[in-house]
Design goal:
165 residues, mainly alpha, 7 helices, 2% strand
Length: 165
């Protein structure tokens, strides 16, 4: 796929990522500056809240799409319906710095499970829509999806290391 075509396909995701970065910068400013652990918490807050809201808009279609590849949701459809609310809760916890070490460990496990489900599905080479932005925007599941999940894993690991120093 040519670069221009990829940019068009992933335009909604790029826009959401830019919105997340802007929100992170604004939250950093409100918290008094750039501190790596706080910046990561602000990014995760923005990321989870924005993406959760996109999933909640069309909850039923999100749940259907998500259960087609997630390891837990494929076995329990109830989980696919509550997952956006879990993300939203995580976003609020990061936003308000609520028990960050516990929340970050939970996030690490959750995002590792998500990453594994995406990785397994990508190996099958079957093209399906990614449920990462709900079904509001149609973006195919790809290595971009896996990278997004692994970024959250890396930030969770980074935050845990920073908290234990």
């Amino acid at each position: 796929m040519k670069l221009k075509a990829k940019l068009l396909v992933y335009r909604p995701l790029i826009g959401i990522f830019i919105l997340t970065l802007i929100t992170t910068i604004l939250l950093d400013y409100l918290h008094g500056g750039f501190y790596l652990a706080q910046t990561m918490a602000n990014f995760m807050a923005s990321f989870f809240i924005i993406f959760a809201c996109l999933k909640i808009i069309k909850l039923e279609s999100f749940a259907e799409a998500y259960s087609s590849y997630d390891l837990i949701a494929s076995r329990n459809t109830y989980y696919s319906h509550i997952y956006p609310f879990i993300e939203f809760g995580l976003g609020l916890a990061y936003l308000f710095n609520f028990h960050l070490l516990i929340i970050t460990w939970f996030t690490l496990v959750l995002m590792l499970i998500n990453s594994l489900g995406v990785f397994i599905h990508l190996r099958k080479k079957k093209i399906i829509p990614c449920a990462c932005m709900g079904t509001v925007f149609r973006v195919p599941m790809s290595n971009v999806t896996l990278s997004e999940d692994l970024l959250m894993v890396a930030m969770a690991v980074g935050m845990i290391i920073l908290y234990y120093r």
